[in-house]
Amino acid sequence: MITDVREDRLLVTSDTHIGSLFCNARPQVLHFLEYACRNKYNVCFNGDGIDVLCTSLPKIAHETASFLSEFRRITADYNITIYYTVGNHDIILEHYLADWGAVHVVPFLNVTSGSKRIRVEHGHVYDPFFTKHPEMQTALTHFATYVCRVYPPWYDYYKKYLILKYKIMNKLSGDKTDLPARMVESGEGRAYIDAAEEIAQRGFDAVIFGHTHNPGILPLKTASVPYINTGSWFDQPYYAEITNGEVELKTWQI
User: Fold this and answer.
1) What are phi and psi of 124, to 5 degrees?
2) Which of 44, 148, 208, 246 has a C-alpha 20 to 30 A away from that of 220?
3) pLDDT per residue as tens digits for the range 213-237
4) Structural domain count, the chain
5) CATH number of the domain encompassing residue 136
6) Contact yes or no for 229/240 (Cβ under 8 A)
7) pTM for this prediction
8) Where does 127-253 have alpha helices with state H?
């Protein structure tokens, strides 16, 4: 299993949630892969690439079968490497941590690019509730999925609840947040920023997470190392472009 890699040209995105009952990202994800191939980038899907929680058996079977078929077609004509870091909605893939030809399923990536070192991981292990109550969070996610299938608008209410929860948690902790406006409005949790700070102190020049679905970029206190979150494909998709050590957060134009 490879976790330390050298990649001078790498695209990182996360939370495509292929197979989810509430996200239809597969067609655009395939276009994203085609773009990477044409421009000679390798790709990292940074967790929750597929969704085995918010789904049904027919949905996940159809979506993943179609995606893998197109995936093989696209990558067959190009010498491209795919990294897949495991998240919480696809945590079952921890049983498949290994190198599968050009596809590498990993828990995280330490990327050397140019003269920089960049940490890439999904970030769910820094979610306070997931850390303390993983089984309860999984059960609640399944419950929320059933509710949303009966009453789909409830999904929007649930997202608003998560935003409010993070804002209240930040306020109760006395956090005078310096997050960018976009991340504040989305309710980015301070726990993820603190985790990124700790990682940066290990000698990384950038830290990339997914998980929170809150895209944004901000300098950490550790030598202004950037913390980058690539958001999700439920709304406007984002990705991090790594070129010879330089990292940019970009929107994917649908």
Assistant:
1) -65, -25
2) 44
3) 889 888 888 878 999 999 999 889 9
4) 1
5) 3.60.21.10
6) no
7) 0.83
8) 128-132, 134-150, 154-172, 181-186, 190-200
